[in-house]
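INTERNAL AUDIT FORM
Audit reference: QA-55
Scope: verify that the stored structure record matches its stored sequence.
Auditor: D.O.
Record contents follow.
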Amino acid sequence: MNQVAGPAVRPVRADEWREAKELRLAALRDPVAPIAFLETYERAVAEPDSFWRERTEGAAGGTRVRQFVAEGPDGRWTGTVTVLVEDEGADDALGGTVERRQAHLVGVYVRPGCRGAGVIDALIEAAVAWSWSVADVARARLYVHEENARAERVYQRCGFRRSGETVPMRGDPAKVEREMILDRLQGAPGMRKEPPDLAH
């Protein structure tokens, strides 16, 4: 019996800013976007092309930021995740202080028509594998909104667990973002192929 190949996942290339922009704007138009992303569509769509060029170049080959994309058979991008390397003592994007050198997964998104095909699993697996390749990184983390239960289930399936830490949701402090973590000692994420349906 022939095995079906999983989604093709690779790092973004520096010259792919147009594709990166299109996918990010698609993510920010998703119905779940208000609880999945800190950025808004209105703010992102107003950015000049130079912003997208610099953002994509910075995520293409550095050791501090790396963006991964999943490609369909036709070459169209079906999903993405970005990894930020955070140093101990630095300020993080959610207003806290980083307690240890770690990787932070952000901007996780899979196009609606591509969900349920293992894209999210492949993206997170690539992101975590790259995280472990960075010197002194022994923990990966991400945040998920308390009302984004589908996203949380997917991350749990991929090996992440709640740390017990929360931060107020920017713009709606009555709601919280839950920190989820994966320690390197836990090994590679466990990837069960269940049909995820999320934007994060």
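Auditor finding: record pair retrieved intact. Helices lie at 17-28, 33-36, 41-45, 49-58, 119-133, 149-157.
Action required: none
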